[in-house]
Amino acid sequence: ESTGSIAGYCSSALNSLTPSQITFLQSLPKAELHAHLNGSIPVSVLQDLARESATIPGNIDSEAVQSGLEKLLNGIELREINEFFGLFPAIYALTSTPAALARATRSVLQLFLDGPTPECTYLELRSTPRATPHMTRRKYVEVVLHEIDRFNCTADGNGNGGTREKAALIVSLDRRMNAAVAKECVDIAVSMRKKGRKVVGVDLCGDPMEGDMEEFADYFRQVKDAGLGVTLHIAETTSNTPRETLQLLSFAPDRLGHATFLDDEAKAIVLRDKICIEICLTSNLLCKTVTTLDDHHIRYYLKNNHPIAICTDDPLPFRNSLLSEYALLLAERPFGLGLSEDEVRKVARGSLMGCFGLN
Ligand code: 6MZ
């Protein structure tokens, strides 16, 4: 019964490694390409934000927000993936002002890129522009980009030196967005890109059971025309139909998130076009879309020598890290997939080749 537990997957793989194996994983150059900003806020920062928000009357006193926060602080246990999306209103209540959003963004950049053994060498962080009583969607993107710029400008952490290409933004569209909002988000992404800001791509995410993907075709055409990368959450659950999957593939994505339930026709397209798959092992196991590591579709892509990028998805609810995800590759069975160091090095290199921003 330990299979669904938070502590389970990620920590036992990491704990089974020798110190030299851990050093090996830490020293590998690698990119994190699939991390949602509001799903990556460190727990301690969330607690600070909750304390600060409590001083704003009416801000976080709703029962839904309180129970969501409690779950996030204690560690979630999901019965199925749709329970997952109910966690976000609680986080959103805490990142609704420009100052709180800036603080959250800064902490996520630090989480992935700072410290003596950074999680990754390059980060494409994604976030859904959200209009709140305190900011417009454009302001939301400005705030996040401002923090990314500040981070990239601090070459040695003391403000000395020039800029470094460490982090960039992917603007997420949510499957639940109506046409006007989706258009607004695409316009923001494209106009930021034209101004030379660090927006490198557009994503499609959100509850996989929601939305009509037909509506998004025009927007992604616009995104591609502007030279931005396209990544799509695709076939994350069994309720995503083969028809929808083919429709999403017709948007000519550069990368795909999850791609858990592709049928043979879709797989053939993905292999033919060598579309990089963003693999989120712990996320899939905890959301129960995949039962065991042995059953995970990563094995299919490894066998076919197909480009993949190992990613965390949402370290806040999942309590994972990029290191613990790589540990799942290197650890011997039953803790991990038992790949060799050479195989893991190749996977890490693939993540850098899959970047929108560096190539
Ligand atoms: C689909 C996901 C997701 O954008 O507010 N999100 N969408 N599948 C997943 N797999 C588990 N994990 C997160 O970050 C939070 C948003 O990212 C999407 C959801 O729409 C969530 O509301 P941002 O920074």
The largest sheet has its strands arranged as: 1-2-3-4-5-6-7-8
Q: What is the total tally of β strands?
A: 8
Largest sheet: 8 strands, parallel
Run of helices and strands:
HHEHHHHHEHEHEHEHEHEHHEHHH
The helix content, as a percent range, equals 40-55%
Structure in a nutshell:
Its cofactor is Zn(2+). The chain has 359 residues and is α/β, with parallel strands linked by helices.
Structural descriptors:
359 residues; alpha/beta; 8-stranded parallel beta sheet; 17 helices; globular; binds N6-methyladenosine-5'-monophosphate; Metal_Hydrolase; adenosine deaminase activity
Please give the structural blueprint.
Elements: H1 8-15, H2 19-27, E1 31-36, H3 43-53, H4 63-74, H5 82-85, H6 88-94, H7 98-113, E2 122-127, H8 137-153, E3 167-174, H9 179-194, E4 199-205, H10 217-225, E5 229-234, H11 242-249, E6 255-258, H12 264-272, E7 276-279, H13 281-286, H14 298-303, E8 308-310, H15 315-318, H16 322-330, H17 341-353
Parallel strand pairs: 1-2, 2-3, 3-4, 4-5, 5-6, 6-7, 7-8
Helix pairs in contact: 1-16, 2-16, 4-6, 7-8, 9-10, 11-12
